Amino acid sequence: MVTRVLFTMAALVCLAIAVSAQPAEIHRVPRGRQLFERETFGGNGRTCQTCHTTDTGTVSPDEARRRFRHDPRDPLFLHDGSDDGAGHGSRRMRTEATVLVTVPLAANVTLADDPSARTVTVRRGIPSTLNTPALDPVLMLDGRQATLDAQAAGAILDHAQGVVPSAADLRALADFQRGPAFFSSAELRRFFRGGEAPGLPRGRTPAERRGRRFFEDLPPDPAAGLKPGLCAHCHSGPLLNTTNDFAAPFIPSPAPIPAGQRFLSVGVSEFNPAGHPVREFVFNAGTPAEVRVMSPDPGRALVTGIVDDPTLEHLNAFKISPLRGIRHTAPYFHDNSARTLEDAVAHYTKFFFVASGGLIVLTPQDERDIVAYLKLLD
Ligand code: HEC
Ligand code: HEC
Q1: How far is it, in rounded angstroms, from Cα 119 to Cα 66?
Q2: How far is the CA of 231 from the centre of ligand 2 (A)?
Q3: Whose CA is nearest to atom 23 of ligand 1?
Q4: How far apart are the CA of 268 and the centre of ligand 1, in A?
């Protein structure tokens, strides 16, 4: 009898806790889900999920083609998803899945062919919303948004052509994007909750084990062709998205690259393999410090206005991509120019050869080993 009364009291206490937890925990998360997956904010019919799907957090050209076959009027193909940005043509979205992103120009940057313009439109892939909202404080390919709330408000205006909701709704959206569905692995989910940082998978096959060497935090070894630790220079830390102590500029540079740097160029805008339209950007026009740059997308430099750049973190530089779950999110690089992991690694063979003045030569075997290892990363 006494036990029974105690049990009932305990049940009541639990119930009271559950009821008081409701507004914060139980009520808020469904609101965030509803906003991310269904809310169109009075705009063009798009939701966040139109571009950031549940499975991969992004949209690939395969997915775009599948959706086009199913419904050519899918809101993915509207507005900045269309060929001309005004709703005509879906070829670009179906072939490369890039969006026309309009970026404000830093005060000292102008366009040679349109000097009064204060924005420029560039073609960028859709970065995955897995892992980043919870684990990466640097948002957007060029780092131009400071918080998830500001990012969501921008997305609602730019992509959904909608009305920005209340601060509470923006917070609910942010909380939802840090929730359990937004991780590429259970390990990363645990890490976010305070667990141990995931390490590098060991690799089972000889190719995977050789591939792992490129991702170990090792000092450059000229006797080994500077290859061990090469990718870890920039792909280090739990998400493999930050420089370590050994990051090298490869070409003679007045400044070494510090650990913890988040932006760099790996030659994607320079080589422009996607063949995106090139514009002439003028930095510090009409002053002795004037610099003119031809580029399809100068990346971080548009935000900072910095072009004279010893640590290579501004001109044509983009956020170092996280590599966890990378096998699910083709195509690669900010312009979606690498269709497969094989293409991305082939790009690096070219980049390292040029950047090191011919010192670093990745062989076809190295390329296969690196791809085998990239496919292991969860
Ligand atoms: C038209 C497709 C589209 C829609 C709709 C869209 N996004 Fe995005 N999202 C993008 C693109 C493209 C970028 C990268 C732009 C850039 O870096 O310049 C991006 C970037 C992001 C990022 C930063 C990712 C990173 O790696 O830094 C987050 C977070 C995000 N979006 C969340 C949202 C939310 C929340 C919504 C809904 C309110 C939304 N997006 C709607 C295309 C879209
Ligand atoms: C000097 C710094 C640096 C080094 C070294 C480096 N990366 Fe990167 N990596 C980056 C940056 C910056 C990006 C984003 C580039 C862009 O989009 O223009 C990137 C992007 C990538 C991507 C595309 C990810 C995505 O989601 O689009 C892959 C794959 C990749 N790197 C693999 C590698 C491999 C493999 C190596 C070694 C062979 C390597 N990286 C070495 C800085 C580096």
Answers
A1: 33
A2: 8
A3: 140
A4: 20
Hey, what are 91's tokens? 């070829």
Alpha carbon of residue 131 to chain centroid: 10
Tokens 């005060």 appear where? 107
Is the CB of 133 inside a 6 Å radius of any atom of ligand 1? Answer: yes
Q: How many other C-beta atoms can be found within 10 angstroms of the C-beta atom of residue 150?
A: 14
Question: Can you read off the two tokens belonging to residue 317?
Answer: 């530089």
Question: In this predicted model, what pLDDT tens digit does every residue of 134-187 receive, in sequence order?
Answer: 999 999 999 999 999 999 999 999 999 999 999 999 999 999 999 999 999 999
Instruction: Round to whole Å and give the CA distance between 236 and 272.
Output: 26
Question: What token pair was written down for 187?
Answer: 């390990």
The single-letter code of the amino acid at 313 is: E
Peptide bond into 331 cis (omega under 30): yes
Contact 59, 97 (CB under 8 A): yes
Tokens 């609910």 sit at which residue? 172
